């Protein structure tokens, strides 16, 4: 699952980009997009977290803040997402190298132009995607770390909760924490190892994930968990 943000104040352009993404996913097995549209960059940046997006389509000419300034602020937080400018004026997009933009799409754009950018963005994210190989009764399965929301231990079994469902394998918390602990996964309670990129908020006694799932924060884990979370966000870790 690729998370895609469309930062665009023109409804027609945003709708066309979303339609292109839907069609691309329909035509390519194993590709899915989780999309969100932001009408202005201020709202987009307000809640931005490192590693939150895989691909960002950014209009350059928008009210309140232009897309180039927004892109600079975006890169201060997220260094890894694929950034693609959408603009009426090519000369502005030429500054894209300053923010490591993949490319730009010139309005009015065709579906073919968008498809080429999407294909390249998917290739880049797949190439760099980290994964873990798990073994279960049906064989082995490779899970992208970005798709794992959290891991839960039940006795001698591990349940990998992912965006596509739950994968259960034999194993221990000690083994999975050793494998994932340094890759953006944090222990919030005795039976839970959570992927920090999926954390939406942290309360006094629980952590809430982007999909609404709430996991308890164990009293003996709270200080270590919060310190590791702050450290991870500070260095812009993206799992």
UniProtKB/TrEMBL annotation:
InterPro entries, sorted: CheY-like_superfamily (IPR011006), LytR-like (IPR046947), LytTR_DNA-bd_dom (IPR007492), Sig_transdc_resp-reg_receiver (IPR001789)
Location of 4-aspartylphosphate modifications: 59
Keywords: DNA-binding, Phosphoprotein
One function term, GO molecular function aspect: DNA binding
A Pfam cross-reference name: LytTR
Domain Response regulatory: 3-122
Record-linked Gene3D superfamilies: 3.40.50.2300, LytTr DNA-binding domain (2.40.50.1020)
HTH LytTR-type domain location: 145-231
Protein name (record): DNA-binding response regulator
Organism: Bifidobacterium eulemuris
